[in-house]
Amino acid sequence: MLAIRRVISDKGGIGVYLFDEIDAGIGGQTAVEVGKKLKSVASHNQVICITHLPQVAAFADQHLLVQKKSKGSRTLTEVVELPVAERKKELARMMGGPQMTKILK
Predict the structure, then answer these.
(1) Residue 21 gets which letter from DSSP?
(2) DSSP letter (8 states) at residue 9
(3) Number of C-alpha atoms within 13 angstroms, CB side, residue 7?
(4) Which residue intervals of 21-83 are DSSP H helices?
C-alpha cells in the first residue's frame, strides 16, 4: 500500500494518509526505507503514522507521544507534542528501552 501511495502521492486527490503500525514485522534498514518513503509521500500530503520504530519516527516533521495512564479504574490517554530535545530522548528510549545511559541523554 505504501508503494502505491508513494507512486500516486503527487497526483492529488487524497490530502491525508493514515498509516497504523505500518512497521509491523519489519526493522533495521527496511524500517529506514519505509521512513524515507513516508517522508516522500509527506512532501505532497499530510501523513499520520502510528509507529513503534525509531527508524520510522526519526523521519517525521512532528512527533506526538501517546501515553496511557491508569487513574483508579479508568485508563486515560495523553497525547503530547515533543519539542526537539524531548524528541531525541524519546527516539533514544524507543531504541534502547526505559533505562537511559549517559551516552543516550
Answers:
(1) S
(2) G
(3) 3
(4) 28-42, 54-57
CA 47 to chain centroid: 10
Q: For residue 30, what are the CA distances in angstroms to 44, 70, 73?
A: 22, 35, 40
Q: Alpha-carbon distance 85 to 57, whole Å? A: 15
Q: Is the overall model pTM greater than 0.90, yes or no?
A: no
Residue 67 neighbours by CB under 8 Å, 6+ apart: 77, 78, 79, 80
DSSP 101: -
pLDDT in tens, 18-60: 889 888 899 899 999 999 989 988 888 889 999 999 999 999 9
What three-state secondary structure class fits 58?
A: coil
Give the burial string for 1-15 (b: 16+ CB within 10 Å, else e): ebeebeeebeeeeee
